[in-house]
Design a protein that fits this description.
- The protein is of the alpha/beta class and 278 residues long.
- It has one domain: Thiamin diphosphate (ThDP)-binding fold, Pyr/PP domains (Rossmann fold).
- The chain is 43% helix and 12% strand.
- Helix 1 crosses helix 3, helix 1 packs antiparallel against helix 10 and helix 3 crosses helix 9.
- It starts with a helix and ends with a helix.
- This is Transketolase domain protein.
Length: 278
């Protein structure tokens, strides 16, 4: 996909996020929207995957370590063809396979069940090490939250990845600077995030995580980095794309009501129209 096509798809992914959370009357829109461009680039450009064969042996793996932003992952998977887009409206409904957190047993395209913060990166390290041991060339991607990396297990996993030189592992930190209780530097600051990963022998790249040019540059650089894992620190806007959600901690884990939903979808409709005029 070219940049314009990726931008248009990101709008569709954001529409899926807003629609699913509104339908569920629960969920986490803020961090899903901030990472929507990352999800879009991974699933439509970066990863070696096949929606028709979700378990193919040589596929790249993805672990959503910050599992509460499942609406973002689900919307990317649906738009990529893993399951019908209309199923997004069943999010968190009784009997739906689209649970509040990713479930690898029931959702096509989900490589690891996640949701307990801090644990996903360890699972990604195991997948990456398995690839090395089996001499397979798949890559493993893990998306972590900047609040999540206050968890100690993240740094145990980082220590392991750096020591084992897992250059087939790429960690992305969605650095939107807000967690459920407020700004991360006021709750339990993990800053400087880049220096911490560097100290664990990671190649570190800082980018604007809502800019596809910078996203492409980072993933291209990560793919060519050998002898060490890569950490991409993606500086993003919480609630990106929805006017009243942007940089608002209150939208970390709250669903829009009908009136708010209409405003959000109008914001996204206008964004899509603007892109169509380019």
């Amino acid at each position: 996909m070219d940049k314009l096509a990726l931008q248009k798809m990101a709008v569709e992914v954001r529409k899926g996020i807003v629609s699913s959370v509104h339908s569920a009357k629960a969920g986490h829109p803020g961090g899903s929207l901030s990472a929507a461009d990352i999800f879009t680039y991974l699933y439509f450009e970066e990863m070696n995957i096949d929606p028709k064969d979700p378990k193919k042996e040589d596929r790249d793996r993805f672990v959503l370590s910050k599992g509460h932003t499942a609406p973002g992952l689900y919307s990317a998977l649906a738009n990529r063809g893993y399951f019908p887009v209309e199923d997004l409206l069943t999010l968190r409904h009784t009997g739906s396979y689209l649970q509040g957190h990713p479930d690898m047993k029931h959702i096509p395209g989900v490589d690891m069940s996640s949701g307990s913060l801090g644990q996903g990166l360890s699972a990604a390290c195991g997948m990456a090490l398995a690839g090395k041991m089996k001499q397979q060339d798949y890559r493993v991607y893990a998306l972590c939250g900047d609040g999540e990396i206050e968890e100690g297990q993240i740094w145990e996993a980082a220590m392991f990845a750096g020591f084992r030189k897992l250059d087939n592992l790429c960690v992305i930190v969605d650095n939107n600077n807000l967690q459920i209780d407020g700004p991360i530097d006021e709750v339990c600051s993990p800053y400087p995030i880049d220096k911490k990963f560097e100290s664990f022998n990671f190649h570190v790249i800082n980018i604007d995580g809502n800019d596809f040019d910078e996203i492409k540059r980072a993933f291209d650089e990560a793919r060519t980095t050998k002898g060490m894992p890569t950490a991409i620190i993606a500086h993003t806007v919480k609630g990106k794309g929805v006017s009243y959600m942007e940089n608002s901690v209150g939208w970390h884990g709250k669903a829009p009501n009908d009136e708010e939903y209409a405003v959000a979808m109008e914001d996204l409709r206008k964004a899509g129209e603007a892109l169509c005029q380019k």
